[in-house]
Write a structure and sequence with these properties.
It contains 6 helices and 11 strands. By secondary structure, it is of the alpha/beta class. The chain has 2 domains: 102 residues, Transcription Regulator spoIIAA; 120 residues, Heat Shock Protein 90.
């Protein structure tokens, strides 16, 4: 099978042997998603990308297990997912199943428009959660990264690349846009709510991070965010 399929609040698309799901999986669309997984796995799909799934609980586990049972003898299903989905699968014992490999996604993606910005926000939050940050701290990462990427789309140029890594006890996120425009030295330090075009994005990002630095060179504007250990 090939092409895309839209269940209620969730899209399913296939490229080669990779099946990508995006959206919500819950009791309202569980049967539709499960049926599609079964048919695609039986037709040779062996990779499942769940990184763009925003809601994944018992219904998602049920759908995944049905797809797993459709594997041919000796087959293996390789799943990539966000940290919160990974946690659900771990709690349910799914990670121990034969023929199933589940890997939490790293934070390294490209944003080209606002739909992919939504995915970047969710990925940043899930990555921080996987690195041990509690919900409130992971939400700070999501908001700050979202504001800086938005700034890159509006004032810089797409594509905007988002990468994250751990440096000791601190999480570091680097956002590179293709605009190459130097940021003003006071960007994000002063808040001027009375200005007709006042923007709060970089100001907010600075207050959600331990430090934020900027650099522009060779057609790229780089913003690096450091998030303190919780």
């Amino acid at each position: 099978m090939s092409g895309s399929f839209r269940a209620t609040r969730c899209t399913v698309s296939r490229d080669g042997t990779t099946l990508t799901l995006a959206g919500v999986i819950d009791e309202g669309n569980r049967a539709e998603i499960a049926d599609r997984l079964v048919s695609e796995v039986a037709a040779g799909a062996d990779r499942l990308d769940l990184t763009a799934v925003t809601v994944f609980g018992a219904a998602g586990v049920h759908a995944l297990l049905r797809g797993h049972r459709a594997l041919p003898a000796g087959g293996r299903l390789r799943v990539t997912c966000g940290a919160l989905t990974y946690r659900v699968l771990d709690m349910c014992g799914v990670l121990k199943l034969d023929g199933l490999t589940v890997t939490p996604a790293a934070l390294d993606l490209t944003v080209i428009d606002y739909p992919t910005l939504d995915r970047a926000r969710t990925a940043a939050r899930d990555w921080a959660a996987h690195e041990g940050y509690p919900a409130a701290a992971a939400a700070d990462v999501m908001v700050a990264v979202g504001e800086v990427v938005t700034n890159g789309l509006i004032h810089g140029a797409a594509p905007v690349r988002v990468r994250g890594w751990r440096a000791g006890r601190v999480l570091v996120v680097q956002v590179d846009d293709a605009g190459g425009r130097p940021l003003p030295p006071d960007a994000g330090f002063a808040l001027r709510p009375s200005a007709p075009d006042a923007r709060y994005g970089l100001w907010l990002a600075r207050r959600l991070t331990e430090s934020l630095t900027t650099h522009s060179a060779a057609g790229t504007t780089t913003v690096r965010l450091h998030f303190p250990a919780p």
